[in-house]
Amino acid sequence: MDGCNYLPLLQGGFARSAQEIIAVGNYVHGYSDIEARRLADQANTLAGLLHATVAFPAGSRVLEAGCGIGAQTVHLVRNSPGAHFTSFDFSSDSIAKARESIAVSGYSDVLFNIADVYNLPYKTDAFDHVFICFFLEHLRDPIQALRGLGKTLNAGGTITVVEGDHGSYYCHPRSEAADHVVKCLIEVQARKHGNSLIGRQLYPLLAAAGFREVKVLPRMVYVDASKPELVDGFTRKTFIAMVKGVKEEALSLQLSDEKSWEKGIADLNRAADEDGTFCYTFFQAIALK
């Protein structure tokens, strides 16, 4: 799509790189190619669970906040033919990958911007809908971000938010060592001014940001050997890969030692065996401006 069609929605200029953004929490998982693959695996594995009820009318203007590499964007566009998407992130590298993802998927009705969620370049009432997925958990001040996003919505516009909650995880066989490495991930993210327990807070956050008619629904992922696609796509390639990604930081912060860490990861992998089970809950919130 020609980006010129969106020019009336903009005000001011865009930030040029992630280094120019301030007051945004550090992305705890990093920007490696391994993380990009994990994000893609996560989006594809969870598409049915997280996007089944998300669709926007043809002709509507949708703002996707914190789009990252575009892993969720592909599913958004696929489910909403005819809707016009504007997706932004603060990382220029991520935006470049997002553009590639959309191009490979054959979609064109998306405009990508590099932007700061605390200093949005969009006009008031520019959009009909806002979509957020796995973004608020990385922000220092999610209420401020939500208030700013709300200003871009027209009266009666909707906001849809999907976030996880690492405190909702459990597995069989139960393991204190596995619990330990998950707690390390939670702590590492907290020290980067993020909140990996934010799923349980969506209702009060949206209400405090001024949204009305807030409704929150749990979206639980339960995995056992009868669901091999989830064992591989979620337990191994999404959750365990996410935990493994913070090993060096957890060790450097002395949250764990090498032996305890390796034991915890081994026990998490045990949950992906034939007699293991794994469970995690996401939360989906929908509200009106």
Distance between the termini: 28 Å
One letter per element, helices H and strands E, the order comes to HEHEHEEHEEHHEHHHE
Helix/strand/pairing class, anyone? alpha/beta
Largest sheet: 8 strands, mixed
Please state the overall shape, judged from the principal axes of the Cα atoms. Answer: globular
Number of helices: 9
Overall helicity: 25-40%
* E-strand count: 8
How many domains make up the coordinates?
A: 1
Low-confidence stretches: 1-8, 12-25
What CATH architecture label applies? 3-Layer(aba) Sandwich
Q: Beta-strand level of the residues, as a percent range?
A: 15-25%
The overall pLDDT, averaged over residues, is: 88
Identify the CATH class.
Alpha Beta
CATH superfamily (homologous) name: Vaccinia Virus protein VP39
Gyration radius over CA: 19 Å
Reported by name, the CATH topology is: Rossmann fold
Describe the structure.
With 289 residues, the chain is α/β, with parallel strands linked by helices. It has one domain (3-288): 3-Layer(aba) Sandwich (Rossmann fold), CATH 3.40.50.150. Helices cover 38% and strands 21% of the residues. It is built from nine helices and eight strands. The protein has helices at 33-51, 71-79, 92-105, 142-151, 176-191, 202-208, 228-244, 247-252, 258-270; strands spanning 61-65, 84-89, 110-114, 127-133, 153-164, 170-172, 212-223, 277-288. Strands 1, 2, 3, 4, 5, 6, 7 and 8 form an eight-stranded mixed β-sheet that branches. Helix 1 packs parallel to helix 2 (71-79), helix 1 (33-51) packs across helix 7 and helix 5 (176-191) packs across helix 9. The chain is globular and about 55 Å long.
